[in-house]
Write a structure and sequence with these properties.
The structure holds 2 protein chains of 2 kinds. By secondary structure, chain A is an all-alpha fold. Chain A has a single domain (29-48, 57-288), classed as MetI-like fold (Orthogonal Bundle), CATH 1.10.3720.10. A two-stranded antiparallel ribbon of chain A has the order 1-2. The longest helix of chain A has 34 residues, at 70-103. Chain A is 69% helix and 1% strand. By secondary structure, chain B is an alpha+beta fold. Chain B has 8 helices and 20 strands. Chain B has helices spanning 61-69, 111-121, 126-139, 155-167, 185-202, 213-219, 237-242, 247-252, and strands spanning 23-32, 35-45, 50-54, 76-81, 84-85, 96-99, 173-177, 206-210, 222-227, 230-235, 257-267, 270-275, 283-285, 296-301, 307-309, 319-329, 333-339, 345-351, 364-368, 375-378. Chain B has a 6-stranded mixed sheet, with helices on both faces. A 5-stranded antiparallel sheet of chain B has the order 13-12-11-14-20, with no helix packed on it. In chain B, strand 7, helix 5 and strand 8 form a beta-alpha-beta unit. The longest helix of chain B has 18 residues, at 185-202. Chain B is elongated, with a radius of gyration of 25 Å. The chains are: A mainly alpha, B alpha+beta. Chain A binds chain B through residues 188, 190-191, 193-201, 204, 208-209, 212-213, 289-292, 294-296, and chain B through 69-71, 90-93, 96-98, 100, 102, 104-108, 117-118, 121-122, 149-151, 165, 169.
C-alpha cells in the first residue's frame, strides 16, 4: 500500500511506527535508570539484612510481614492523613487562585502564573529552613502574635503536625494550581452564565457545572500533590520532629540509619502500591464524570 | 400525539391592556470605560409579544440583553419585569431565561438533564420535572433523544435543546441572543418558522437580538432598530421597513435607493425636489416637512416600489431616467442595476414570470413610482 497517503488516517491497531525509533533514547534511559533499579529494589525487598548491614540473598517475605507491626501502621496512617489533608487544603486554596488567574485579563495571566511558580527558583531545602525560622518559638509568627497581644506566651508551632502540613501545602500548592488553571481556562464562561441564568446559586454553579467540567484538572492537581506529599521526607524531618514521622522518613531511616535495606525496600514498595491504588481510584472517579473534552 | 390535548404552555388569559408591560426599560445607560455602549434606551415589551432588537454588531444590543438577563447592571435608568425593578437582582432570581448564541449546553449532561437543569435548581419534584421536560422536548420535536449528549446532536438539534432548556421554566420572558446565527441558511429558514410557531403556541414573550433584518422582520411583532448605543426606531416590521425615520434605518432594513438633492417650492400635494445631478428633471415628493426651500435632502425608495418603462411614462408620477448597467438573474426575481447619475446606481427588481419586457444591459430605462412610496430625509 502507498506509504505517503496522507488523505486516509492510519487505521486503528495498525499504527505505522516509522518514527518510533525516536523514542529509543528515552526508552533506553527509562529502562536503564528507572526499571532496572526498581527491579533491584524489588529483589532486595525479598532478601534479608546481614549482621553488619549488608544484604543476604535468601528469599524471604519476612520484610513484608514485619510491616504489619502497629508502629508501621501508625506511620502509614499518619502519612495518608497528612497527604490527604495537604491535598484538601491545596485544593481549597488553589481552586480560587487558579480560577482568578484563568479569568484575569489575558496579558496578566503569564505574570500571575510566573508568580505561582516563583518559589521554585529557590532550593526546596532552603525554603523549608526558612519555614523553621518563621515558625520557631522566637520566629516571625510568634513575634507578631506576641506583639499584637493575641497570645501571652509563644505558641509551639515548629516540630508539630501542623508545621508539617503547612510546609507540605506551601511546597506543593503550585502543583495544584497549574493543572487547575489549565482546566478552568478551558471552561467556557458562558456555561457558568447559563447555569446562573437557569436559577443556580453560586454554590450550585460551582458544584453542578464548574467542578464536573474541570474534573480532569482537579484529578491531575490532587494526584500531583498527593503523591509527593505522601512520600515526602525533608518537610516532616525538618518541621515535624520525631513525632511526625512519615513513610518517607521511615524509608530514609531504614536505609541510612538502621542500614536495613531489605526492610526499606519493602516499605518503598508498599508506598508505591498505595500511591498506585490512590491514582487508580482518582482516575476511576474521573472516568465516571466526563470532562469537557468528552463532551465536545 | 398524547401531549397535544394538554397544551403545555398556554398564553396568559389576562387582557393585554390591563396588565403592566412584561418588560419596561426606562432610560438605561451602560458604559464600558469611556465607551457608552447603551445610551438612554427605553422600550417596553408586551405579554406574548415577539420583540426584536435589530442592529449592526457593536450597536449595544447584546448589552441590553445582558442587562435584561442580569449579567450586567445599567449605570443609569431602571429596568422592570412584570412591574418589579430588576436592579441588583442576580440572574438566578430573575424570571427570564436566555438562549445563548452558542447554545452553551452543558457538555457533561444529557439532553434530558440539560433541559431539567433549571427545574432541578428550583427544587421542582422529580415527577414534575419528568413531565415538564418531556412536554418541552415534545414541543421542540426532540422526543427520543433524551439520553444523548449535546456533542452527539446536530446544530439544529442543539438549538432546539437550548430553546427547550429555556422554555421549560415558563419564564416571563425568553431572551434570544442571535438564536439562529450558527445554523446554515436552509436550517435557519426552517427554524425561523418553527421558532415563531412555538412562540405563538406557548404564548412566550420573547426578546430577540439579531443583526439579520429579514429574520427580525419575519419573526417579530415589533422591531427596535439600534445603532451606536441608541434606539433609533421602534415599530412593527412594516412600519420600520416602509416608514423608516432615518437614512440609517432605511439602509439597514433593506435596499435603499437614494438620490441627493435640494427641496424646492410647494406643488400640488407635495413639494418639488431637484436631484443634485442636473441632468435629471425635478421630481415631486410628498412630505409634511416645512423645511425652507433650498435645504439639502435625500430621497429614498425601496426597489419593489419602482416601476420600469422603456419609454417616458405619461403619468404624473415622479420619473428618473437611467440606463441598465447590469442584469442579475436570481431565480424567483431579476435584479437590475440602473445608472441614474455619474456614480449613482439604483437597484430594481422584477419578478420572474411577469410578461413585462425584459431589459438588457445598455438599454435606456425610465424609473417611476407613486408619490407616496418615496421617503425624504434631511441630514
Amino acid at each position: 500500500m502507498p506509504s505517503h497517503d496522507l488523505s486516509s488516517p492510519p487505521k486503528p491497531g495498525q499504527s505505522s511506527c516509522r518514527s518510533c525509533w525516536l523514542a529509543a533514547p528515552g526508552l533506553l534511559w527509562m529502562g536503564l535508570f528507572f526499571l532496572a533499579p526498581l527491579a533491584l529494589v524489588f529483589a532486595i525487598s525479598f532478601a534479608s539484612r546481614g549482621t553488619y548491614g549488608g544484604i543476604v540473598w535468601e528469599f524471604t517475605a519476612a520484610n513484608y510481614l514485619d510491616l504489619w507491626h502497629p508502629l508501621y501502621g501508625r506511620i502509614l496512617g499518619q502519612s495518608l492523613w497528612y497527604a490527604s489533608l495537604t491535598t484538601a487544603i491545596c485544593f481549597s486554596l488553589g481552586f480560587p487562585l487558579a480560577y482568578m488567574i484563568a479569568r484575569s485579563p489575558a496579558r496578566w495571566q503569564p505574570v500571575l502564573l510566573l508568580l505561582v511558580m516563583l518559589p521554585f527558583w529557590t532550593n526546596f531545602l532552603v525554603r523549608t529552613y526558612a519555614w523553621m525560622i518563621v515558625l520557631r518559638q522566637d520566629g516571625l509568627v510568634n513575634g507578631l502574635l506576641l506583639a499584637l497581644g493575641i497570645v501571652d506566651a509563644p505558641l509551639e508551632l515548629l516540630y508539630t503536625p501542623t508545621a508539617v502540613v503547612i510546609g507540605l501545602v506551601y511546597g506543593y500548592l503550585p502543583f495544584m494550581v497549574l493543572p487547575l488553571y489549565v482546566a478552568v481556562e478551558r471552561l467556557d464562561p458562558l456555561l457558568v452564565e447559563a447555569a446562573w441564568d437557569l436559577y443556580a446559586s453560586r454554590w450550585a454553579v460551582f458544584t453542578q457545572v464548574v467542578v464536573p467540567l474541570t474534573m480532569p484538572g482537579i484529578v491531575g492537581g490532587c494526584v500531583l500533590v498527593f503523591i509527593p506529599s505522601i512520600g515526602s521526607f525533608i518537610t516532616p524531618d525538618l518541621l515535624g520532629g520525631a513525632r511526625s514521622m512519615m513513610i518517607g522518613n521511615l524509608i530514609q531511616h531504614e536505609y541510612l540509619v538502621v542500614r536495613d535495606w531489605p526492610l526499606g525496600s519493602a516499605v518503598s514498595f508498599v508506598l508505591m502500591a498505595i500511591v498506585m491504588a490512590a491514582v487508580v481510584l482518582y482516575y476511576r472517579h474521573a472516568a465516571r464524570t466526563p470532562g469537557p473534552l468528552e463532551g465536545r | 400525539m398524547a401531549t397535544s390535548s394538554t397544551p403545555p404552555f398556554t398564553a396568559s388569559e389576562q387582557s393585554l391592556s390591563s396588565t403592566p408591560p412584561t418588560i419596561d426599560v426606562r432610560g438605561i445607560v451602560r458604559r464600558h470605560g469611556a465607551v457608552t455602549a447603551v445610551d438612554q434606551v427605553s422600550f417596553h415589551v408586551r405579554r406574548g409579544e415577539f420583540f426584536s432588537i435589530l442592529g449592526p454588531s457593536g450597536a449595544g444590543k447584546t448589552s441590553v440583553l445582558r442587562m435584561l438577563a442580569g449579567f450586567e447592571d445599567p449605570d443609569e435608568g431602571d429596568l422592570l419585569i412584570d412591574g418589579q425593578s430588576m436592579l441588583g437582582v442576580p440572574p438566578n432570581r430573575r424570571p427570564v431565561n436566555l438562549v445563548f448564541q452558542s447554545y452553551a449546553l452543558f457538555p457533561h449532561l444529557t439532553v434530558f438533564e440539560n433541559v431539567a437543569f433549571g427545574l432541578k435548581m428550583r427544587r421542582v419534584s422529580s415527577a414534575l420535572i419528568d413531565e415538564q421536560v418531556r412536554r418541552a422536548l415534545a414541543m421542540v420535536k426532540l422526543i427520543g433523544k433524551e439520553a444523548r449528549m449535546p456533542a452527539q446532536l446536530s446544530g439544529g438539534e442543539q438549538q432546539r435543546v437550548a430553546l427547550a432548556r429555556a422554555l421549560v421554566n415558563t419564564p416571563a420572558v425568553v431572551l434570544l441572543d442571535e438564536p439562529l446565527a450558527a445554523l446554515d441558511q436552509q436550517l435557519r429558514q426552517a427554524m425561523q418558522v418553527e421558532l415563531k410557531s412555538i412562540q405563538e403556541q406557548a404564548g412566550l414573550t420573547c426578546v430577540c437580538v439579531t443583526h439579520h433584518q429579514e429574520e427580525a422582520m419575519m419573526m417579530s411583532d415589533r422591531i427596535a432598530v439600534m445603532h451606536q448605543g441608541r434606539m433609533w426606531q421602534v415599530g412593527s416590521p412594516r412600519e420600520v421597513y416602509e416608514r423608516p425615520c432615518s437614512l440609517f434605518v432605511s439602509r439597514f432594513l433593506g435596499v435603499s435607493n437614494e438620490v441627493p438633492g435640494t427641496i424646492g417650492a410647494a406643488i400640488g400635494e407635495g413639494r418639488l425636489f431637484q436631484p443634485a445631478d442636473n441632468e435629471q428633471a425635478p421630481l415631486t415628493v410628498r412630505t409634511e416637512s416645512t423645511e425652507p426651500a433650498g435645504r439639502s435632502a435625500t430621497l429614498s425608495l425601496r426597489p419593489e416600489h419602482i416601476r420600469m418603462a422603456q419609454e417616458r411614462p405619461s403619468t404624473s408620477d415622479p420619473v428618473l431616467s437611467g440606463e441598465i448597467e447590469k442584469v442579475l438573474f436570481a431565480g424567483s426575481d431579476t435584479k437590475y442595476l440602473v445608472r441614474i447619475g455619474r456614480d449613482r446606481f439604483w437597484e430594481t427588481r422584477m419578478t420572474s414570470g411577469t410578461s413585462l419586457p425584459a431589459f438588457a444591459a445598455g438599454d435606456p430605462v425610465f424609473l417611476h413610482w407613486s408619490l407616496a412610496d418615496a421617503r425624504l430625509f434631511f441630514e
